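Notebook B, p. 112. Complex prediction, attempt 2.
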Amino acid sequence: MNNESNSNELEPLNRAERESHEVIDNGPSGFASQLKGFWVTFRTMFKKVNTVQYPEVKEATAPRFHGRHQLNRHPDGLEKCIGCELCAWACPADAIYVEGADNSEGERFSPGERYGKVYQINYLRCVFCGLCIEACPTRALTMTNEYELADDQRQKLIFEKEDLLAPLRAGMLLPPHPMYPDADDQTYYRGEVPGASPLQENIAEPNK
Amino acid sequence: MSIQEIKNQEITSSQGADSAIEMITIIVDGFEVSVPKGTLVIRAAEKLGIQIPRFCDHPLLDPVGACRQCLVDIEINGRKFPKPQASCTIPVEPGMVVNTQLTSPVAEKAQKGVMELLLINHPLDCPVCDKGGECPLQNQAMSNGGGESRYEGVKRTFEKPINISSQVLLDRERCILCARCTRFSEQIAGDPFITLNERGALQQVGIYEKEPFQSYFSGNTVQICPVGALTGASYRFRARPFDLVSTPSACEHCASGCDMRVDVRRGKTLRRLAGDDSTVNEEWSCDKGRWAFKYEHRDRLTSPLIRNESGELVEASWPEALAHAAHGLSINRAAVLVGGRSTIEDAYGYSKFARIALNTNDIDFRSRTSSDEERNFLAALLLGKSVTYLDIDKADQVILLGFEPEEESPIIFLRIFKQVRKRGLKVSALAPFTSRGNEKLKATVIKNVGNEVEDISKFALTNRSVILVGERLAEVSGALTAALKLAEQSGAKLAWIPRRAGERGALEAGAIGNLLPGARQVADPKARQDIERAWGSGPLPTQTGLSTDQILDALHKGEIEALLVGGVDPGDISASAIDGLRKAFVVSLEIRNSAMSEVADVVLPVAAVVEKSGSFLDWQGRARKFEAAVTNSLHRSDVRILSILADEIGRPINLGTVEKAAKELASFGDGSSDQKSALASLSADQAKIKEPGKNQAILTSWRLLLDNGSLQEHEPNLAGTAHPCVAVISDDRANRLGVVDGDLIKISNSNGEIILPLQIGDIDPRAIWIPRNSENSRPLLALKSATHSLVSVVKA
Amino acid sequence: MNQPISSPYSDKDLAVMDSIVKRYPRTRSAIMPLLHYLQSIEGYVTETGIETIAQILSLESAEVNAVATFYTQYKRKPVGQYHVGICTNTLCAVMGGDAIYQSVLEHLGIENDGVTDDGKVSVEHIECNAACDYAPVVMANWEFYDNQNVESAKDLVDSMRQGNPPPPTRGPDRLVTWKEASAVLAGINDGLAHQGVQAGDPTLLGLKIAKNSKGGE
């Protein structure tokens, strides 16, 4: 296959092909087409302008715009990330680095056995393809619409876990803290945990 | 694998080997294949490159047919089995036609059905499972599974995970009951501490609740588990297979010579797996080899250190440190002590450095208790024929002299155990007591401490027998000579098994006072000329060098003022060694901060095994080559640093790279053949030990596999499975002392005391045995003697 | 190590165990009778018992434990003096076994595998007893009570609690206790083997018909 196509390229063009490549001078009729072209330019002068005065003015992105990643939390504040590294595996740019660790009774960051201890995304490498989001088995990793990811130092563009974690919302407790009373990891994945219970708070206190 | 190779394997594994191997031809998926009689269908198919999915099948374990994944359609001479059969349990028969999942829809459907069943109770927790990404269940569910499950019920659950030892975690939900782990423990390790318990849906792998899975080989069960049911505690959640860069390596812990695989993530070893070498470790490794590696990145020396005027070690630049070291070594009379863990290339570096840069033969690699008799024995040993694992496979009996295989060279233990189990290989041991390892080997133990030389001469051996001599036999004067004589008289094969990985290589590299590289005698002028010519050096020192003990003695007396040491723990040699070192100018090549840093004047950091290339000679004398697994390390191999140091001294040894050292050493060949006459005649009589008095006993000891060894530091999970640190005494003595199992006893002499819980054992009633280098039991330091001396034993 | 066996069992018991071991060419074969013998001493398989057997047979406790947990005949917790097994396999179940099982449990106020407070009776549902010809079948200490119904089964357990159970339908002339039955299973002859019917009429019915019919018609 390859050999054939290569040898074809090397052959001189035949006559018909050569003619098709020549610049065609259309004579006076060409002037009309030029006017037609300028008409597009002219017409555009009266259209509404798309340019905005960024950064003073910021337009909303498309709802599914691929922006900065976010590591989500369960409603009670525990992290959804289980440190499984599937995002890192899926990443075509090798931009994600994850190290998992063991949740212990005294120090729990996520439901189940495992949590992501180290989580880094290198935005110098990331191509925002979203394959990591597809790979995430717990919907821990999603993308926000935030696109302002420029900085003056390369180091600052490696985002750590704390840069990526979703903020605590109402009803959430800062991990580490135990799981919701009588809940297990399955309960969490099924979305049956409503929010932090006072019981979790009590036990979480000494950890702070 | 060619037919010839299979034939060879059969020959080596069957003891008779006289009968010709009967070949049977069968048809698998339309292709003919000829295999030796007794081959299983699944392996005959493998020979054709047809992979039948399987979980329980393992070539080194007895067939069991537990998982049923390998079902195939079989007919024999036109008669078809009514149902698909497990190809891992059926040996080939003439006229057999096998149709695997590739050609038989029945087999394919059966396999898919089995896979669906296996997955019914298997949790969908692959994202958190350590096996994820390298899991046979995952892979084969993809390649041979149905894709959809029809099961909608609730999965059976268990508490997860549970510790069945401090280093092995069991997740019973994931288990598919293939019984690989239980079969390994029983058939290979002889430690049936894990079993299949309960029945039906509740069947599960488990330990007896009070007895954790404390086998030295438990890590292998983690490696062969085809699902994530057994995982290692120290690798838990550390990485995914795609994070790891795998490098074939060799084990630095003992002289068994295991092939290993080192998995590195970002310059850090995260785990080690047993490599596959059928002539050495087969597919197994001991837990020390697998799990003791954190020493590589803890307490590492990162820059050279120099002792300043106020006596403190301070960081220095390389040129400064090298100049200081070179000065100290060249103005004083200097000697060299090499640790037992040098690669052969590094040992050769020390050997050449001593001869050229220091112009001395005062070099010794035996940083442990040793004797002059041993030195002569070793020189004689190199003249003998090499002994290999295959000789153990074929032996009519194996004699263990001063050697505890399970503790001191575990892979040799596995090899002997295999033959004991397979064909009742006769094993005899000369030991103070019947250890658990010897029990497993069903060994006849001759317990007669202090009378070893006479006992050795009593063995009746043939030319198919194998004598395995441990390094501890040197502690009994005359015993090595007796062993050598026994081998000569009976024609039996004799092998010397040092405990450490580097000793055999160091011997061959001439890192010892009486030998030059290539087993040449220092005393032989022709041998010296050979080496002088090869090195292009001036005349080599002619006097046989001092041994370790003599060097230390000379240090005490001030006859030697400078010492170059490479990876030596003075506590391994004697309690007073460190005092001698204090007096001298010491240059230490070390990977980590160690006891040597206390006394060293210059410390030069060197590379650990993962960071360098090189090779170890295992006990067979076979080179176990390895490449650097961590390639971006700033550390350099000992030999490179020695070469620079020699340049600094002004007597270059020209060994800039490991490759160069290896090539140069190889070029010497074996110079031992024509020098038998040069051997010092071996003779020594055993020193008589006084009969112990009423409350006295003869002290005996050896090192346990898992103990206080410096390469096992920072491994709490591993240490959790060490054998208990106990003193073994006889029933008789326990009665006399009025003590029972577990009571504390005090072992003491004029130098000090050791207090240990006791265990009543089948021991020479005059003797007591204690671990040599475990927590609370370091007799060499506490009692200034490790063996064959009288101690008093009383109730504590 | 050939240590003397250290266990709390009496010398007599240890001697019996030793005699059991000697019956077999391979000592390991004695695991099952030894476990039965333990049950005849203590009523169930205790940890001490498992460890003792392991010592006697030079096995690991884990190996003995594996056998003890596999067979349901070995009990890991105390059972009653009379251990009642009610067959709930297909044939017995449709003939009334399920109903017997439920009502006996309710009558005694215990769960499956439970023991009455007085320690007299325990109940478990068991798999086929190979007595379908007498279905529904109830067993007590492995002896048959054939053709039971809810009432007769209740009467049976009541009589057990009073300490005077009727003799089994087939089997010895008196119902032995759980411990006695365990000793028999360990191979210790109680001299009752010859008593009672071995194969009753329903069992032999098929054979009789076959013999009476002419040559395989």
